Amino acid sequence: MEANPRSTGRLPAAFLTPGSSSFVDFLGEHQPDMLPANRQLPPVKGAFEAPHGTTIVAVTFPGGVVLAGDRRATMGNMIASRDMEKVFPADEYSAVGIAGTAGLAVEMVKLFQLELEHFEKVEGAQLSLEGKANRLSTMIRSNLAMAMQGLAVVPLFAGFDLDRERGRIFSYDVTGGRTEEQGFAATGSGSIFARGALKKLFHDGLSEQDATTLVVQALYDAADDDSATGGPDVARRIYPIVTVITDEGFRRLSEEESSAIARAVVEHRLERPDGPRAALL
Question: Quick one: average pLDDT of 43-49?
Fold first, then answer.
């Protein structure tokens, strides 16, 4: 499929032949070396550290779902980045938050975005949310060889299901195993602490504003106990990425909106460092 300077300008036959609606399958057939899982890792002597993304959280509310992530990337005991982007739109009604090996994770998200776009162009219709979750599962499974060498990618997938008219969340393990989460979910190094906060503060009647505040509270708790998770950085004006997906589509909160929520959380933490209390009964 390489360019030929003497050609008439027509696309190679591979691009004009009807085939699978999966771009990953197309790439695997015609240019398999471009797939991340097929690349050969160079020999490395001694310990090797790659930048890792950390904590992602998601919460459903009656009108949709909120997906958010902190901004820190680590490399061993060092902070590799303070303002990493970890939450991306997959298409108009879904989004992916990444944890794990940063470079591979971002590349996988871009490939997933292309996969959904390719399907829509070939089939003339969008995949169902369930179908999107299954496609992502297949892509994670194809990365298993690299995951076994320490280069794992563990995303969180969320979207608005147009058929069921509600927000849904899917979590994954390194083998591509997929689980639908009810109400809330977290992944990454600080997920155990974020999940604890979500478990105590989540309830079915959350408004969109409540849900966006809850994910920031959970990320704050994760950063409080996990050194790899970055909390709101008021001095540098670096705040969590917060996205909302409803029947109107994907929307990322503006810098002003996310900073207002983060500053309110930080201000209340000055009075109550451990955060809001859940009722005992």
Answer: 54
Average pLDDT over residues 48-74: 89
- pTM, two decimals, is 0.84
CA distances from 186 to 63, 181, 191 (A): 20, 10, 5
Active site residue 243: no
Catalytic residue among 8, 54, 60, 229: 54
Question: Residue 159 is encoded by which pair of tokens?
Answer: 């979207």
**Is residue 33, in this structure, part of any structural domain at all?**
no
Residue 79 lies in a domain: yes
Is the CB of residue 187 less than 8 Å from the CB of residue 67?
no
Query: 192 in a domain, yes or no?
Result: yes
Q: pLDDT digits over 63-103, tens only?
A: 999 999 999 999 888 899 999 999 999 999 999 999 988 88
Both tokens assigned to 228: 């790899």
Contact 82, 231 (CB under 8 A): no
